[in-house]
Amino acid sequence: MLPFPGSPRARRPLLGLASATAGLVALATVGAGVQVAPAPPAATAATTAAAQAAEPDPRPNIVVVVADDMRVDDLRWAPRTRRLVGADGISMENSFAPYPLCCPQRATFLTGQHAHNHGVYWHEPPSGYAAFDDSRTIATSLRAAGYRTGFLGKYLNRYGLDRSRVSGQPSHRYVPAGWDEWRGAVENPGDAGFHGGTYVYTDIAFNHDGKIDNRYRGRYSTQVIGDLAVDMVRRSDRHRQRTGEPFFLLVNHVAPHHGAPRDPDDPQPLGGSEDSTQDFPSPYVPPAERGRFDDVIDRAPGIARSGAPTEKDVSDKPRQVRNLPPLSRADLRAMREVARQRAEAIHVMDRQVARLVTSLKRTGEWERTVVVFTSDNGLLQGEHRFRTGKVWSYEPSLRVPLLLTGPGLRGKGPLGDKRYDPVDTPDLTATLLDLAGAEPPRRPDGTSVLPTLLEGDRGWDVPVLTEATHTSGGSERGFGERSSIGVRTGRWSMTRYRDGFVELYDLVRDPLQHENLARSREHRDVLAALTTSWREVKDCAGAGCQAPLPESLAMTADEVADATRRYWKAIDRTYAYR
Question: Could you tell me the strand order of the sheet in which 181-185 lies?
Answer without folding.
Answer: 211-213, 206-208, 181-185, 148-154, 247-252, 61-67, 369-375, 402-405, 90-96, 417-424
